[in-house]
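User: I'm writing a short methods note and want a consistent example. For Pirin, I'll paste the sequence; you return only the structure tokens, no commentary, since I'll be parsing the reply automatically.
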Amino acid sequence: MSTTRTIERTIPAIRTVEGGGFVVHRPFPTRLLMDFDPILLLDEMGPVDYAPGEAKGAPDHPHRGFETVTYVLEGQFGHKDSAGHSGTLREGDVQWMTAGAGVVHSEMPDPEFTRTGGRVHGLQLWVNLPKRDKMIAPHYQEIPSGGIPVGVSDDGRVRVKVIAGEALGVKAAIETRTPILYQHFSLQPGASVETRVPRDFRVFAYALSGEGRYGAERTQVRARQMVLFRDDGDSVTLATGEEPLEVLLIGGVPLKEPVVRYGPFVMNTEDEIRQAVIDYQAGRMGAITH
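Assistant:
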């Protein structure tokens, strides 16, 4: 018999500005919570409606030592990197980028979207890499919306897009370096689901819209709050009342390794951070051709 986890605490997302001036809502890292091993950051980008010529993004910037996961809910995100890789992510698409030893990356709206304007809403997750993988070669996994596995509850009232891990009998297409769970649940009014979570995973929920009822206590929590679950069960309960609920369930097995952060570099020691800065400044992570 499974035991559903209880809630440890909730943390509100903080509104801030990133990159070239786009607004994000960030539950962590903030002064209330610096990290959630093995997850380093979650940003909800938008939703924002851009007039023609107003769209903003994140110009050229480096990464080393972790992975970035971009999930588009509305609109589109253009991207390029120093290895010559480029493309456009559209509604429902996921890009799982393993920065590893280092890559210079840009996430800017493509010219057509800048010209027309429109709504943008997306998510970026940073996943830490274990020490053994910090310096592996950079690579991508890009899954179009139609390629993301979807699970549905027996009563048809709960739907889940499985980006990483397994839920409602469906397994993700993306392969992760360590055990990671990243799932987008959609619940109809009055619906609930108890989803299995391995006991060695740390997990949290983050609602994009709707007021959810979480954990064994069915605690009511509004959207844009991070709900941290205790490690006291092998399942998580998600439910809603009279309105639909769009909620992410995210987590993984803690690495339990030292974490040293400096902007876009996440390593295990100060010396490794200094070397990352030197390598970037010397051009060893390459440059983007625009």
